[in-house]
């Protein structure tokens, strides 16, 4: 009877059965009444089973759509009451499914944001159980093994300061922050723990935010060391200028020979300060990436010859042999010729300065696996093993008394120039036998 209302359907069907029994009694008497009654009972059972089946199917569909198959929907056919019920349930499930989909999309978006954050984010309950921890927190704390929700905070870190920040914030119900040194991985972290209540209970949990301050602290340390070293380097020539000026004021200015000597000393100190400031500015530009490099394809032999010619006369005066040994198959290199010349001159200058008379300085060039290598080797005094790891640091000098000329910035500048060319620079040395500095540049074919 299609979508006829169940009330009218039962009324019509009941009326039909009554009519059937009345007709049987009228036409066939007692026998007709009995037969009509049997037929009516069978019809009632059949109709009852049919209605019961429809309700059972509706019930099963509701259970199915609300448990496993959220995409399943009720069949909006049958009696009008069941049709309206099926449609209402379908609309309700559509809204629930839409809400669940939006909630799932929001969770995915939030998880993606947390996973991509450089800051560590950890949610911990008042029992120290982790509710969530993003990958950055695991990396920053150098946690060993997998960390999953439900595990204790101690499985993420056993550092007492980190755990203490969380504990204090939960106990005080206030935001607590602390700068923490992690000696295991040499990191400095800012840990901020903020308590917030659970919506379903009075219990609290804490949001722990971890920010890596390692680079910032290292930069601050480097800045302080830079200022300290620069001040020290500038103080020496300034002291010389002051001493010369005071000597001239006390009467030496009237002595032509003494005056000339002190003016020469002042000029030398001014030149030292000028060289220091120039190299400090150059190093600053290189470190900040502001130094502009003009790349061009250049013959390696031309680079080497230009640098060696600058020291030919000095090598003769110092009684040194200055040689070049370049492979025949060197390809063109893509470099900023002026900047690479700075590298060559600095390394050759150091080799000449630290090689006694009768020694040798050799400039080499070769190709290894498509990479062009240059090296400056000398037979000089060599570098102590304890100094070798620090020679490319700013203001570092192997001469503790700093009696030798130089700013201590040359090798640091050379390293930054090579880095800017995408190459590497290294040093090897044996005390009493000499040193060798090698660096790479890219060929024009690479």
UniProtKB/TrEMBL annotation:
Tell me which UniProt keywords the record has, alphabetically. Answer: ATP-binding, Cell membrane, Kinase, Membrane, Nucleotide-binding, Phosphoprotein, Transferase, Transmembrane, Transmembrane helix, Two-component regulatory system
Judging by the UniProt lineage, the source's domain of life is Bacteria
Stretches that traverse the bilayer: 20-47
EC identifiers of the protein: 2.7.13.3
Identify the enzyme class.
transferase
State its location(s): Cell membrane; Membrane raft
* Domain Histidine kinase, first and last residues per copy: 229-445
Question: Its GO CC terms?
Answer: membrane raft; plasma membrane
SMART domains attached to this UniProt entry? HAMP, HATPase_c, HisKA, PAS
Gene Ontology molecular function, alphabetical: ATP binding; phosphorelay sensor kinase activity
Domain HAMP, first and last residues per copy: 49-101
Catalyses: ATP + protein L-histidine = ADP + protein N-phospho-L-histidine
| Membrane topology of the entry | Multi-pass membrane protein
State whether keyword Amino-acid biosynthesis applies. Answer: no
Query: What PANTHER family does the database record attribute to this sequence?
Result: HISTIDINE KINASE 1 (PTHR43711:SF1), TWO-COMPONENT HISTIDINE KINASE (PTHR43711)
Report what the protein is called: histidine kinase
| Native source species | Candidatus Lucifugimonas marina
Its organism's taxonomic lineage begins at:
Bacteria, Bacillati, Chloroflexota, Dehalococcoidia, SAR202 cluster
């Amino acid at each position: 009877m299609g979508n006829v209302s169940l009330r009218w359907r039962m009324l019509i069907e009941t009326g039909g059965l009554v009519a059937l029994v009345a007709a049987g009694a009228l036409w066939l008497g007692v026998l007709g009444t009995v037969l009509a009654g049997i037929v009516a009972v069978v019809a009632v059972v059949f109709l009852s089973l049919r209605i019961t089946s429809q309700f059972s199917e509706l019930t099963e569909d509701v259970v199915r759509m609300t448990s496993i198959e959220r995409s399943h929907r009720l069949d909006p056919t049958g009696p009008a009451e069941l049709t309206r019920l099926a449609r209402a349930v379908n609309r309700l499930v559509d809204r629930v499914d839409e809400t669940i989909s939006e909630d799932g999309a929001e969770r995915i978006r939030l998880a993606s944001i947390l996973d991509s954050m450089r800051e560590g984010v950890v949610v911990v309950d008042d029992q120290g159980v982790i509710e969530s921890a993003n990958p950055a927190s695991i990396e920053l704390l150098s946690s060993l093994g997998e960390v999953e929700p439900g595990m204790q905070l101690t499985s993420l870190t056993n550092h007492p300061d980190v755990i203490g920040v969380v504990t204090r914030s939960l106990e005080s119900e206030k935001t607590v922050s602390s700068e923490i040194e992690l000696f295991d991985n040499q990191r400095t972290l800012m840990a901020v723990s903020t308590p917030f209540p659970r919506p379903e209970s009075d219990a609290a949990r804490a949001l722990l935010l971890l920010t890596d301050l390692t680079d910032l602290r290292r930069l601050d340390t480097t800045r302080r060391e830079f200022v300290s070293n620069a001040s020290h380097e500038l103080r020496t020539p300034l002291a010389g200028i002051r001493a010369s000026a005071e000597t001239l004021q006390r009467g030496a200015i009237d002595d032509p020979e003494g005056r000339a000597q002190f003016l020469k000393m002042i000029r030398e100190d001014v030149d030292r300060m000028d060289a220091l400031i120039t190299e400090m500015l150059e190093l600053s530009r290189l470190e900040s990436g502001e130094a502009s490099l003009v790349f061009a394809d250049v013959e390696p032999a031309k680079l080497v010859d230009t640098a060696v010619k600058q020291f030919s006369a000095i090598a003769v005066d110092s009684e040194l042999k200055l040689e070049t040994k370049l492979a025949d198959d060197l390809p063109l290199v893509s470099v900023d010729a002026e900047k690479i010349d700075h590298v060559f001159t600095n390394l050759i200058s150091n080799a000449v300065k630290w090689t006694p008379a009768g020694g040798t300085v050799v400039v080499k060039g070769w190709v290894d696996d498509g990479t062009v290598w240059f090296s400056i080797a000398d037979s000089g005094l060599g570098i102590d093993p304890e100094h070798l790891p620090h020679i490319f640091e700013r203001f570092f000098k192997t001469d503790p008394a700093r009696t030798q000329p130089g700013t201590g910035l040359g090798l640091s500048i050379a390293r930054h120039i090579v880095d800017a060319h995408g190459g590497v620079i290294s040093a090897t040395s044996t005390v009493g036998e000499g040193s060798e500095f090698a660096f790479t540049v890219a060929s024009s074919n690479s």
